[in-house]
Design goal:
binds guanosine-5'-monophosphate; about 130 residues; alpha+beta; HIT family, subunit A; single chain
């Protein structure tokens, strides 16, 4: 079972942002930016391009909603998207607020936030999703 499946099941805590029947979104614990969010399918599949067509399309549509909400919470030019997948074998899309290309450089040092900062960010994004 992947670490992300454990997160979906609530066996490992996370700062949840959104969930529906098939997809789940939560803050990346080692973020490149405030609001850096991971969007995943609940069905555990390692490689994003092994998802069924409808699952992949649904994942991107789910990500779009989350990105629009992050934009309202974090000041940025765009929400950049990235798929790396070298660390966790459970397909995921990174949603990262960016102002310049360097903001989505994964070799940069990650940011640190307190528990309450993470919680506030997740709650603010969740609230925006409720307003959509
Ligand atoms: P990738 O597989 O795309 O190379 O990297 C996996 C991403 O998942 C990393 O950005 C890492 O910080 C994040 N990550 C790994 N384990 C956890 C975890 O237990 N909780 C959360 N919230 N994020 C995680």
């Amino acid at each position: 079972m992947s670490i992300f499946t454990k997160i979906i099941k609530g066996e490992i805590p996370c700062y949840k942002v959104a969930e529906d029947k098939d997809y789940f979104a939560f803050l990346d614990i080692n973020p490149l930016a405030k609001g850096h969010t991971l969007v995943i399918p609940k069905r555990e599949t390692d490689y994003i391009f092994d998802l069924h067509d409808n699952e992949l399309a649904g994942l991107m549509i789910f990500a779009k909603k989350i990105a629009k909400a992050i934009e309202k919470v974090v000041t940025c030019k765009r929400i950049g998207i990235a798929v790396i997948g070298l660390e966790v074998p459970h397909a995921h899309i990174h949603l990262i607020p960016i102002d310049k290309v360097q903001d989505i450089d994964f070799s940069r040092p990650k940011l640190r936030f307190t528990e309450s900062e993470f919680r506030e960010t997740a709650e603010a994004i969740m609230k925006e999703l409720g307003n959509q």
